[in-house]
Amino acid sequence: MNVVNQPIVKHKLGLLNLAEELGNVSQACKIMGVSRDTFYRYQEAKATGGVEALLQKDRRRPNLKNRVDDAVEQTVLAYAIKQPAHGQVRVSNELRKRVTFVSPSGVRSIWLRHELANFKQRLIALEKHVAATGAVLTEAQVVTLEKKRDDDTYAVHKP
């Protein structure tokens, strides 16, 4: 879409053109319902950057998400693979013992970003990790996978 055809730019250009036609900035501003200060801002923007400068600028600062360091995130992900049965509070507490400080909600946020939010997703990630790397399962991981298989066999609902 052409910049000049956008409604906001049309209004600003209309104000500038009206002031030029009338030869009176105050009267043009009164007709258009705009302050003179705004008119001069538009005029300066057009003079410095052309018509493209009349596009509406976003004044809000970008919302930078509160994220943990990459090293902490990788530690949480590695722990999720190592101990998929642990919940977010226990992961936070265990990592705190290892001098990695992350809150339980921080653990959950990391898990959500990497699709590890629930127990089944962490088990699937463990199975993919073992298939990809050929890693040997620890005893805790084997017990967890067996527990999942037992749950799957008993989870059949009969009407």
From TrEMBL:
InterPro entries attached to this UniProt entry: Homeodomain-like_sf
- Name recorded for this polypeptide: Helix-turn-helix domain-containing protein
